Sequence to fold (370 residues):
Amino acid sequence: MLSSESDKLMNPGLYHTLVELDKASHNKGVKVVNQGCTATLELCKRRGGATYAKPSSGGEEYKICCPFCSDGKHRLYVSYLYGTESTNPGYVGTLKNLAYCQNEQEVKRELWDIISTTNYASLSKLGLVRVRESGPAEKKELMPMGEVVPLHELNTFHPAVTYLKSRGFNPNYLGKSYGVGAVISHQHEELRMRKLLTGRIVFPYYVNRKLVAWQSRYAGEVPKGSSILRWYYPSGSGKHLWGFDNASHFQGCILCEGILSAVNFGPAAMAIGGKVLLPHMLDAIVGKWSNVLVALDPDAGINRNVDLEKHDRQQKMVEQLKGAGVPYVQGVAWTPGDLRDPGDIGVKACREIVKRDHPMLYHLLPYYRK
Ligand SMILES: [Zn+2]
Fold:
């Protein structure tokens, strides 16, 4: 974007700061979304009573490749209002929560530290912003899973069964031990992809035998170019640990990114559904397990090379758990030869990893001694 064009932006100062930030990291340019559109802000109240502003319609945004992760696809969105001061009677303060990275949850503080030296205009100078007040966030009810038949009760030719078998998993075991099944009908009216839910494999999350969340996976490889979601999870499911009830029976646990990786590490393994341990998950782990092996996926990115930043993230998680008081924590020592996710390497290889990288945990898990 030429400088005369960028001056037409709603927040050229912020834009130029992001251009500099991008040059110093990925250097893939800054994209502008919804140019000229003003945002509508909604005021929300946290449980403690503190107020924060949330955009209910985005307005002009700047997209850059996130400097805090291995992003190469412009996944960090920054609203033109980021960093502006609000003197609106409902909310007095600086708008810092109007940026997010699609890969992670927590980037705002780091971003703020880097670009807080920019001089921002006051909110009134940036134009029309309607502020609407809303009460405390309502606790949404979990969307029903639909009518589910467990895998071990399905015909062996059902796509959910054949697909999992083709990837080396045992559908009977998944059905009996984890309640994994196939959705045979789903009536939720809010769900636009309702048709796509039927036939999918559903993975329930149980905490103290209560269903707290679920995820579903397309039963097969998603055809190229199709809009079918490979994984789908309803809102609120992201903060829970998959496999919690099964792992509760052991003194140690293994933390994986994906559900199928956790399955290969056995019943002491749980899936966190990403690369970040959320506060809710940390609370659930601390005090419950004394031995933890962190086993994030070994690779990331287009070339499927081992990603050093990701290793940092695994190490960060190890430090995070130690800092929170878990006595024994290790991370898997992946090597450049490890290119596949634990979900793709089978039970035996995962067992060898535990034996090699956390022998103490290995001896604590009876299913490895059989
Ligand atoms: Zn990021």
